[in-house]
TrEMBL record:
GO molecular function per UniProt: nucleic acid binding
Name the record gives this protein: DNA/RNA-binding protein Alba-like domain-containing protein
Regions of compositional bias (Basic and acidic residues) in chain numbering: 10-33, 62-81, 196-206
Biased composition (Basic residues): 34-44
Length: 280
């Protein structure tokens, strides 16, 4: 850059520059010319920006950013959908077994009563279940032609504590309003396929891998250990080989009603606050 300026100043075109640099006025005039050229370049750039010539590059960059943001949002949406599907699948499996249990405990009671079944699983919200049960049992006394309403809560043994909490809150709220409640408990079982955990297989491998050392430091890798052998399975093990393992899971059912249910009273223990009100 410096060489091109020097060559330009040496030729006939640089005569004006050389003449100006001889006097202070000329040097001042040269600086003013530089400022004018610089301002003219700025004005030209501003005019280009206003006319919209560099905007396509910006729009292209903006479109790239939008595409990248869209791809990231799509990936996040796919991840959330996968999580929701796994959660829904686990909840569906748990609720399906509970639904099977609920269908089995209905023994002719639906013919005389209007039963609302409520499945309690590990992800159930206590407040929502309590509110729904109170809304159902609040319509009391029932009109004579209509069937009395009953809330049937059922759950597996692992979630029975949550179901009992819901039942106790419902009974407490009914008693606060001066109403009567009747409770009947029932135990049942549901048969389902047993799923083996991966940890049990690892434990078996780890225990089988521990080889005791002999007293003389030999690991027992002699001629006798070279011969591999396999234990024979019993006839019972061969008969059940390849068949899924089945286990019985206990299920608890709680019936809540505002009226006495004679059919359940004969087979199960009755709990009520009606006797307490009579004694008082």
């Amino acid at each position: 850059m410096a060489r091109t300026k020097a060559t330009a100043r040496k030729g006939p075109e640089g005569r004006e520059y050389r003449e100006n640099m001889k006097t202070p006025e000329g040097r001042k005039r040269d600086q003013e010319n530089k400022k004018k050229k610089h301002e003219a370049k700025k004005a030209a750039k501003a005019a280009q920006q206003q006319s919209g010539s560099p905007e396509p590059a910006l729009t292209n960059n903006g479109e790239k950013d939008k595409k990248q943001n869209g791809l990231e949002q799509d990936k996040e949406a796919e991840k959330s959908m996968q999580l929701d599907s796994t959660i829904a699948a686990s909840g569906a499996n748990e609720s399906s077994t509970n639904a099977n249990a609920g269908s089995r405990v209905l023994t002719g009671l639906e013919n005389t009563h209007n039963i609302t079944t409520m499945s309690i699983i590990s992800s159930s919200h206590i407040q929502q279940k309590v509110t729904r049960a109170l809304d159902i049992l609040s319509e009391y006394p029932a009109v004579p032609p209509a069937k009395p309403k009953v809330v049937m809560l059922y759950s597996k043994a692992a979630v029975a504590s949550k179901m009992i909490t819901i039942a106790e809150i419902v009974k407490r709220e009914i008693a606060k309003a001066g109403g009567k409640w009747y409770q009947y408990n029932k135990l049942n079982k549901v048969v389902e396929e047993k799923v083996e955990k991966a940890g049990s297989a690892k434990k078996e491998k780890s225990t089988s891998g521990n080889v005791p050392m002999a007293e003389n430091g030999d690991d027992g890798s002699g001629k006798e250990s070279e011969e591999e052998f396999e234990t024979m399975k019993t006839p019972f093990e061969r008969a059940i080989e390849g068949k899924p393992k089945i286990r019985a899971i206990p299920v608890m059912t709680i019936y809540l009603s505002r009226v006495r249910i004679d059919s359940l009273r004969r087979d199960h223990t009755e709990q009520t606050n009606g006797l307490e009100r009579l004694v008082r």
